[in-house]
Design goal:
Length: about 500
């Protein structure tokens, strides 16, 4: 009887020794850079060992092995499991750091930031400064999207100046502070200071600094516009270099600022650049409305009607395509994702470009592409063939892919609906301008005003030259690359005294 009891007491010790030997082999493979063998062994320990300590260690090093193998989505899935286990897990803080590293690698705007926001803990204060700064930025970004502006401000202001994410955090802080929905009203002066801090930064180690500075110029222009400081808004918009990523947006908003500043020739000049051939694929229905009212308030009614006709020619057919798509019943998120992902001809090209250029949409496409790459790499991995590891990983990736497809599909539908509603709105506005134009023409005719004769008698002056080294060239219907962005209309106002 004693022998049987002694044998039974030795069995767990033998199993533990076997698990420990397998773990040590996995660790040795990891340290030597053989991440295929390491992942396979850590997976086996995590799946089969009865020792909690060995399992938790294996779980963390399994995630690390995937990160080292440049499978960041697969690594995220395993870091996430540790994050959910909470501070009881001995590698809890290391997993948080791992999550932040793969988020930066993936530029994921959805999965990882939402996990960090849900499980934010004061214990993270001990994390490395760059890691904590990025967490604060990501949570501030989520709070801004949810219109939780006070919380967003607190997280963004917690990002230190010496970190690489500081410029992005300050830009987003400016956006938060200038939002009309900010509690107590927008804080324009504070927003200006945030944008100016970004513009004052040098290129030392700030992430995406140049693009962030261009966005800050847009933000600065919008703040001055909101304050009614239209000339200062124009100055901010015109600091954005030509042909850069946000130049088309700057041209459009510059047109509105010039219009509000009673610089109608300047407004039409900005729109002339925006309507140049290189922006043929841009979605800007409001630009034609702005062009029509600029002419209307100059009493140039034929030109106003020409702008409205251009709007109808370009955008009414787009709406005829979009309306059946966004109002059809029984279309799920996957349908809309497939439409946008496959560049379907059912969507007008400018609208498709507008939907696909959204930063969140680009991030979702990148994540889905990365998942497909990782699935292919895992399936082709000879070391994992015939084991449970490969199929388990593919299944986990498929689950995350399904979630992201739904998110992307919902975002695509929302953007398509927004585009359709924008065209509808400006179609209605165009009808108002048409009515007012016809009414004004009728009133002018009834008053006996010969507008054509009056315009003929008026002088047309060249625009003021910015400096002596500038040349004046009359536009003759051709778009030259060195001229785009420098157009200035001179108008004869057709209004009767």
């Amino acid at each position: 009887m004693k022998r049987i009891l002694l044998l039974a007491s030795l069995l767990p010790s033998a199993a533990w020794a076997q698990d420990l030997a397998l773990y040590n082999r996995a660790l040795s493979a990891f340290n030597s850079g053989d991440y295929d063998a390491a992942a396979q062994a850590f997976f086996e320990v995590n799946e089969t060992s009865t020792d909690a300590d060995l399992r938790t260690k294996s779980e963390y090093y399994l995630a690390q092995s995937f990160a080292k193998k440049e499978l960041p989505v697969t690594a995220f899935i395993h870091y996430q499991s540790i994050l959910r286990a909470g501070k009881a897990h001995p590698f809890y803080l290391k997993a948080v750091e791992g999550l932040v590293n793969v988020q930066q690698q993936l530029d994921d705007q959805y999965l990882i930031p939402n996990q960090l926001e849900k499980r934010y803990s004061d214990e993270w204060a001990t994390l490395p400064l760059e890691v904590l700064a990025r967490i604060n930025y990501l949570i501030g970004q989520i709070d801004q999207r949810k219109a939780k502006f006070d919380e967003a401000q607190a997280f963004l202001e917690a990002v230190p100046r010496e970190t690489a994410i500081y410029a992005k955090a300050q830009y987003l802080l400016g956006v938060v502070l200038s939002d009309p929905r900010f509690p107590g009203g927008p804080k324009y002066e504070q927003a200006i200071k945030a944008f100016e801090r970004v513009l004052a930064l040098k290129t030392e180690k700030q992430e995406d600094l140049l693009a962030t500075q261009h966005l800050s110029l847009l933000g600065l222009g919008r703040v001055h516009y909101g304050m009614g400081q239209y000339q200062r808004a124009v100055e901010a918009y015109e600091r954005i270099p030509r042909f850069t990523k946000f130049w088309d947006v700057a041209l459009f908003e510059d047109g509105w600022a010039r219009y509000q500043n009673d610089d109608l020739g300047g407004a039409l000049g900005s729109l002339q650049a925006l309507h140049a051939p290189q922006f043929a694929g841009a979605f800007q229905p409001e630009s034609w409305y702005l062009k029509s009212i600029t002419y209307y308030f100059s009493c140039l009614y034929e030109e106003a009607k020409t702008a409205l006709a251009a709007f109808d020619e370009i955008y009414v057919p787009m709406r005829e395509k979009l309306t059946p798509l966004v109002t059809a019943d029984g279309k799920d998120e996957e349908f809309f994702f497939k439409l946008v992902n496959d560049s379907s001809e059912k969507i007008p090209k400018p609208v498709l470009n507008w939907v696909r250029s959204n930063e969140r949409m680009l991030g979702l496409f990148a994540m889905l592409n990365q998942i497909d790459k990782e699935k292919a790499a895992i399936t082709a991995n000879q070391a994992w063939r015939g084991s449970k590891l490969g199929p388990d990983l593919v299944s986990l990736l498929d689950q995350n892919r399904a979630v992201l497809v739904k998110v992307a599909g919902k975002l695509a539908k929302n953007r398509l609906t927004e585009a359709n509603e924008a065209i509808s709105h400006f179609q209605n506005q165009a009808e108002i301008v048409r009515f007012e134009t016809s009414k004004a023409e009728k009133e002018m005719a009834e008053a006996g005003v010969n507008q054509r004769k009056m315009l003929t008698e008026k002088s047309l002056y060249r625009p003021k030259m910015p400096a002596e080294d500038w040349n004046y060239w009359k536009f003759q219907g051709e778009f030259w690359i060195d001229e785009i962005g420098y157009y200035q209309y001179t108008l004869k106002r057709g209004c009767a005294e």
